[in-house]
Amino acid sequence: MLIVYSLLLDISFNSRALAIECLASDHEALVDFKNGLEDSHNHLSSWRNTNCCQWRGIYCDNITGAVVSIDLHNPHPVLFDSSPRKYEMWNQSGELRPSLMKLKSLRHLDLSFNTFNGIPIPEFFGSLVNLQYLNLSTAGLIPPHLGNLSHLQYLDLKTVGLHVENFQWVVGLVSLKYLAMNGVDLSSVAGTDLVSAVNHLPFLIELHLSSCHLFGQISSPSSLNFTSLAFLNLSSNAFFSKIPNWLVNISTLEHSGFYGNLTSLTYLDLSNNTIEGVIPSSIGAICNLKVLILSRNNMTGTFPEFLQGIENCPSRNLFLI
Q1: Are 185 and 142 in contact (CB under 8 A)?
Q2: Residues 31, 14: contact at Cβ < 8 Å?
Q3: Is 309 exposed, middle or buried (CB count within 10 Å of its CB: 0-12, 13-18, 19+)?
Q4: Could you give the 3-state DSSP secondary structure of residue 87?
Q5: Chain centre to alpha carbon of residue 315
Q6: Distances (CA, A) of 31 to 154, 222, 253, 280
Q7: What is the pLDDT of residue 162?
Q8: Distance between CA 80 and CA 174 in Å, rounded?
Q9: Beta-carbon count within 10 A of 38 CB
Q10: What band does 246 get if pLDDT is binned at 50, 70 and 90?
Q11: Which domains does the chain have, with CATH numbers?
Q12: Residue 166, Cβ neighbours under 10 Å: how many?
């Protein structure tokens, strides 16, 4: 990842300071939330004393004592860890109770790589209106009510095998900076709907939609609003359009599944689509480009034509695939 995005740096909390006592209302809400979970391996054994700011995975504001963050992610995700047994030992399951809505200062919630018995993400998650960071990667089906989270800045929903009927719920995420849905089945989402929805996100910096079964043409909006985009991954889909014209207006793009007039571009992945047309020679003038992946497309042209402009770069180490 070319952009290091850490929302936690913007949150003031102290989870272990003995002087900080959590709010009684937050303690009550967390106890009810825990009672809905099946903690068969006793990983939440610390959730017993009266000060919830000292509990595992709980972080509090260091002034008010209000709970601002819950991090119960599985540290041994089965997709990346060599030990399925460790994954099962740390996997949380059970019921996700709406008592989370009583945590009025909650801004960070990470339940990633837990299964919760395969239940859908509850609709009440759309009522956690103060959330800025939400990571539900592989944690369940995606409800459109998440579009109510207008303060959300980070949303990770990466998973495999889930199907999303439409993309319009994204329109409500007007503060979003990071969106990852790699592996989610978006085959019902037309290229026009995708670009139209993303065009409502003026602060979006990173968009990860690899292996989402996206296909067809990629539309060009009449005006472009997501000009902060710096990282775009649309690889391993089934687009058969030419390079979309709207990308030429994104001057900040650094990592892309497509390309434009991108002076900051360092990594470009066009692989595993059906991109058509001539390989543009102007891309050779992007002097910061380090990695270029063009495999498995229908683009034409020769590399001598393609690399025109490279002589204008003071130095160049380009890795081509």
Answers
A1: no
A2: no
A3: middle
A4: helix
A5: 34
A6: 26, 51, 45, 59
A7: 77
A8: 32
A9: 12
A10: low
A11: 7-269 (3.80.10.10)
A12: 13
- Where does 8-83 show beta strands of DSSP type E? 37-38, 58-60, 67-71
Tell me the residue type at 95.
E
DSSP characters over 309-321: TGGGSS----EE-
β-strand pairing of 215-216 with 231-233: unpaired
CA distance 257 to 81: 27
Can you tell me the distance from the alpha carbon of 91 to that of 115, in angstroms, rounded to the nearest whole number?
Answer: 7
Q: SS3 for 25?
A: helix
β-pairing verdict for 108-110 and 93-94 = unpaired
What is d(CA 163, CA 121) in angstroms, rounded to the nearest whole number? 13
Q: How far is Cα of residue 272 from the mean position of the Cα atoms in its chain?
A: 21
Q: Answer yes or no: are the C-beta atoms of 209 and 234 closer than 8 Å.
A: yes
CA atoms within 13 A on the CB side of 208: 18
Distances (CA, A) of 4 to 8, 78, 136, 231: 12, 24, 19, 11
Cα separation, 98 vs 125, in Å, equals 8
What pLDDT, in 10s, does the model give residues 279-311? 766 666 667 667 777 788 787 766 656 566 566
Q: What is the pLDDT of residue 266?
A: 67
Strand pairing category for 37-38 and 93-94? antiparallel
Residue with tokens 């990466």: 158
Q: What is the pLDDT of residues 114-143, one digit of tens each?
A: 877 677 788 899 999 999 999 988 766 677
* SS3 state at 305: helix
Residues 196, 197, 200, 201, CA torsion sign: negative
Tell me if 197 sits within 8 A of 172, measured CB to CB. Answer: no
Contacts (Cβ under 8 Å, ≥6 apart) of 222: none
Number of alpha carbons in the 13 Å side-chain half-sphere of residue 176: 29
- CA angle at residue 214 from 141 to 255, to 5 degrees? 100
